[in-house]
Design goal:
The chain is built from four helices and two strands. It is mainly α and 150 residues long. It folds into two domains: 43 residues, no CATH class; 78 residues, 3-Layer(aba) Sandwich (His-Me finger endonuclease fold), CATH 3.40.1800. A two-stranded antiparallel sheet has the order 1-2. The radius of gyration is 20 Å and the shape is extended.
Length: 150
């Protein structure tokens, strides 16, 4: 595989790791149809076993997928916490437990979305939203909102 070339049509530039924009849209539509058919037939898309009712994966494949995605989100949050300094702006808390940190918009007028939802976005959009934030521990974040310091 040549880097930077679409694996479907050999065009560039790529919009993801494998496809150009046109082929990425076609692939996304194909995946939607594929998962819909599997869901209707009750077949797991990953192992071809029996899927959970109304789902496109069996419980064990869904659990593996959730575990993988949760790991990716944890790693991404860790990088964002480190990007913003790795400590609470108000109380200087430093901890290895990244779940203790929240991303806070000091200026709500520049907020384009919930920072927690930014993890589901493309990396550039996520980074743009996170850089508008300051890092607070959960307690200091709640205190700021309770005081009305949005």
């Amino acid at each position: 595989m040549i880097l930077g070339i679409c694996i479907s049509c050999s065009k560039s530039p790529l919009v993801n790791k494998r496809y150009c924009a046109e082929c990425a849209n076609k692939q996304a539509e194909h995946c939607k149809r594929y998962h819909k058919k599997r869901r209707e037939k009750g077949i797991c898309c990953d192992c071809r076993g029996i899927a959970a009712t109304g789902k496109s994966r069996c419980k064990s494949c869904q659990a593996l997928r959730n575990e993988r995605l949760n790991g990716l989100y944890r790693d991404l949050k860790k990088r964002c916490v480190e990007l913003l300094g790795g400590k609470c702006l108000d109380c200087n808390l430093v901890t290895e437990y990244y779940a203790a940190y929240d991303f806070h918009h000091p200026d709500p007028n520049v907020k384009e979305g919930n920072p927690a939802m930014a993890f589901g976005r493309k990396p550039d959009a996520m980074l743009k939203e996170i850089t508008k934030c300051v890092l607070l521990c959960a307690t200091c974040h709640r205190i700021r909102h309770a005081k009305g310091e949005l």
